[in-house]
Design brief:
- This is SAM-dependent MTase RsmB/NOP-type domain-containing protein.
- S-adenosyl-L-methionine binds at residues 265, 292, 310.
- One of its GO terms (molecular function) is RNA methyltransferase activity.
- This protein is an alpha/beta fold and 611 residues long.
- It folds into 4 domains: 10-116; 130-216, Sun protein, domain 3 (Alpha-Beta Plaits); 235-441, Vaccinia Virus protein VP39 (Rossmann fold, 3-Layer(aba) Sandwich), CATH 3.40.50; 453-610, no CATH class.
- 42% of the residues lie in helices and 11% in strands.
- It has 25 helices and 15 strands.
- The protein has helices at 10-23, 29-35, 43-55, 57-67, 69-72, 78-89, 100-107, 109-116, 130-134, 148-157, 171-179, 208-211, 220-229, 246-254, 268-281, 330-349, 370-377, 406-410, 416-419, 443-472, 481-484, 489-495, 534-553, 573-578, 598-610; strands spanning 137-141, 161-163, 185-188, 195-198, 215-216, 236-239, 260-265, 286-290, 306-309, 356-361, 383-386, 412-414, 424-431, 584-588, 591-595.
- Helix 2 (29-35) runs antiparallel to helix 3 and helix 13 crosses helix 14 (246-254).
- The protein is globular.
- The chain starts with 9 loop residues before the first helix and ends with a helix.
């Protein structure tokens, strides 16, 4: 019997939370472990559990699949279950508690051990953190709190030695220099002015400057977008996907808190993280907004001159996930790219004062990078793509794919194995000057998209008007459920001529005349429109039959008013006596329905008696 009242040890719960956030791209393992230090102080144990989980991810997934644990135990938390499996098989090799999640995993222990020897070892399972072994520790100086020189002097006072770079255009020599840094040496970056470089795995999470916000632990690649955006002091800047806030605070430092920075984040949890980081950084020029930025425009953020677009992506360039290979999920990539295209188009079309826009991702997949840039450029006649190399002193080695021609040449990539950073992509757009043209603009595609957008807009307007009409005519014989099916006003009108007040229709008094067979005709109604939607037709027929049954069961003295023009909800009783009741005929798809009121039948009988 499981003891439901026994709680899971906090270590495992915090580790599961961190692993889930790492997978979601919220940050690196080290960063999130130290950010959760208050929730559990044993950071070494936390790091070991999460790191091992990602190193053994293929084995863990295979064990879960073979054992069917999550299928048989649907209430189990997947990430907590994975952490417990790691502890059981590669950690302490036991689970000390008596909580239900622990007992559940223990019940499958023999199944795990029976299958683990049959699972082939992949390159991910035993591979060390290669990038982590030689990737330097990058530290951005928060110039809102201290100058670069003050930071350098402070580290020197602590015993560090500055290794100066002599030639800033010798990129290869620079890379060789930082890979050979001694244990107590640090260097200045040749691209990002406020960036310091320390030996790999140097710890700063307990450093006083980190705790008070004077330094920020930020990868060099993540600093590139703001460095390239290069907003001047006094500028108005929009960060469209601001959380967690590293780039936002970098922008605030770049303009020296002189100007305005709008930081927008839709997700509430990430928005809280954004607010916390902005407050810690001393960025007083930043206004944080919890909103969907796609619904925003110039009216919300007036005078925006520089825009940073760093949307959600696959995160395939993040090396702090311990080298776990990022497999391509084409369906997910397609959804991500669709959102990325929307938000980049929004940046280039909704803010007339914007003069430079930087688009970036931490992805290495061209579907999220060059292809997004290509599709946006094909339909934009106001911006051009500019070479990113000019913003890094032409001292760069990795660019976009040659498959995309000049678009590839103009875009920058940061490659983990070559640039010693996380994988990153950056594209720079600038507003066209008078007489300039966007060479990638495609008139045919642009016109086609405009046509599609116009059609969609027209359909939305029709649907809105249709719903308003039905709202105004509630209670006139046809329920609103037809409207909910999204039928057009014309179709419903065509199929509901026999329903009183169910749309705008015209009725004419027919003249008596003989047809080809010599028969005399009576009153008839004019067909309103063409044949309507079949589903609506069936719906109306069912309702008519129901109403007919109700009329037959009701009192013979009950009268049914025929409403003209779909607007009159009734007539004056005296007016009814003066006017002869009509028989309404509706013909749809060669099916003719005759609807006669009880009053009409009574009038016919009286006429026969008089004759």
């Amino acid at each position: 019997m499981f003891k439901h009242s026994v709680k899971v040890p906090r270590l495992y719960k915090v580790a599961a939370k961190i692993a889930k956030e790492v997978e979601g791209g919220a940050g690196s393992i080290k960063q999130l472990v130290y950010e959760n230090q208050k929730k559990h102080p044993n950071i070494k144990a936390l790091y070991a559990l999460v790191a091992t989980l990602f190193q053994r991810s293929d084995v863990v997934e295979n064990l879960l699949k073979r054992s069917q644990l999550l299928v048989k135990e649907p209430r189990s938390d997947p990430w907590l279950t994975k952490i417990l499996i790691v502890e059981l098989l590669w950690g302490k090799k036991c689970l000390p508690g008596s909580s239900k999640p622990e007992q559940t995993v223990l019940a499958y222990e023999q199944i795990f051990k029976a299958h683990i020897s049959d699972i082939p070892i992949t390159s991910n399972d035993e591979r060390p953190d290669k990038q982590g072994d030689f990737k330097p520790r990058y530290v951005r100086v928060n110039t809102l709190y201290m100058t670069l020189n003050e930071a350098v002097d402070g580290f020197r006072d602590e015993g560090w030695t500055l290794n100066k770079v002599t030639d800033k255009k010798d990129y290869k020599g620079f890379l060789d220099g930082i890979t050979s840094l001694g244990d107590e040496e640090f260097s200045l970056d040749i691209h990002i002015p406020s960036l310091l470089i320390f030996p790999p795995k140097t710890q700063f999470y307990n450093h006083a400057a980190y705790k008070n916000g004077s330094i920020v632990l930020q990868d060099k690649a993540s600093c590139l977008p703001v460095h390239i955006l290069n907003p001047a002091p006094g500028s108005v800047v929009l960060d469209m996907c601001a959380a967690p806030g590293m780039k936002t605070t970098h922008v605030a430092a770049a303009i020296n808190n002189e100007g305005k920075v709008y930081a927008v984040e839709q997700d509430l949890k990430r928005f809280e993280t954004l607010k916390r980081i902005v407050e810690k950084s001393g960025a007083t020029c930043v206004t944080t907004i919890n909103k969907d930025v796609l619904t925003c425009s110039e009216q919300d953020f007036p005078g925006v001159q520089y825009i940073l677009v760093d949307p959600s992506c696959s995160g395939s360039g993040i090396t702090d996930r311990l080298g776990v290979e990022q497999s391509k999920d084409n369906q997910r990539l397609q959804k991500l790219a669709g959102f990325q295209i929307k938000i980049l188009r929004s940046a280039l079309t909704k803010y007339p004062d914007a003069k430079r826009v930087v688009y970036s991702t931490c992805s290495l997949f061209p579907e999220e990078n060059e292809d997004v840039v290509r599709q946006v450029l094909e339909t934009n006649s106001s911006f051009k793509l500019v070479p990113g190399a000019k913003f890094v002193n032409d001292a760069w080695k990795n660019f976009g794919s040659a498959e995309y021609g000049d678009i590839g040449k103009y875009c920058l990539y940061a490659k983990p194995d070559e640039d010693l950073t996380n994988g990153f992509f950056v594209a720079v757009f600038e507003r066209l000057e008078e007489g300039e043209e966007n060479p990638f603009f495609n008139t045919k595609i642009y016109n086609f998209k405009k046509h599609v957008q116009s059609q969609e807009h027209r359909k939305r307007k029709q649907q809105q008007q249709f719903e308003e009409d039905y709202k105004n005519l509630r209670g006139d014989g046809i329920d609103n459920d037809i409207a909910k099916k999204g039928e057009t006003r014309e179709n419903v009108g065509n199929n509901s001529c026999n329903e009183s007040g169910a749309g705008v229709r015209k009725k004419k008094r027919s003249k008596e005349k003989k047809d080809h067979s010599g028969k005399e005709g009576g009153s008839s109604c004019v067909e309103v429109g063409n044949t309507g939607n079949e589903s609506v037709k069936e719906e109306v027929a069912k309702k008519k039959k129901k109403q007919k049954r109700e009329l037959e069961d009701s009192s013979s003295e009950k009268k049914v008013d025929i409403i003209e023009e779909g607007t009159n909800l009734g007539r004056d009783p005296q007016d009814k006596k003066r006017k002869k009741k009509k028989t309404l005929h509706v013909e749809n798809h060669n099916e003719t329905t005759s609807c006669e009121t009880n009053a009409g039948i009574k009038n016919k009988k009286e006429k026969k008696k008089r004759d």
